[in-house]
Amino acid sequence: MAVEHHISNFDPGAFFTLHDFDSSLSWTADEIRRMYGLDDESMKGVDESKKAEVVRKTLEVFDRDVDGVIEWEEWLEGWRGGSRLEDFGLGPGHHGDDEYEYEIHHFEKFHDENTKEEDLTHPEDIEHFRKHDEMEAAAEHQEELDRMPIVEQNIPQKFRRY
Question: Alpha helices of the chain — where are they, by DSSP H?
Answer without folding.
Answer: 12-18, 29-35, 48-62, 72-80, 98-102, 108-110, 123-147
